[in-house]
Specification:
It contains three helices and no strands. It is mainly alpha-helical. The chain starts with 9 loop residues before the first helix and ends with a helix.
Length: 65
């Protein structure tokens, strides 16, 4: 596992701490969960779009093949 160190402006740290308190988690856990969402979501959305397009246009692709 790798550890990252980031620098945040004081106002962002305050916002992060307040949000973490609201969710009752450590600020580090909130950052980790947010990053995980960011890294996985675009791939899931892309896959969903590709599947929808392929399904929607399946007949056209068969005729073009």
């Amino acid at each position: 596992m790798t550890t990252f160190t980031i620098t945040l402006p004081d106002e962002r740290v305050k916002q992060l701490q307040e949000l973490a308190e609201r969710f009752r988690v450590a600020p580090e856990e909130l950052v980790r969960a947010s990053l995980e969402e960011l890294l996985t979501r675009p791939l899931d959305e892309f896959q969903e779009i590709v599947e929808r397009i392929l399904s929607k246009n399946a007949e056209l692709y068969k005729r073009l093949a």
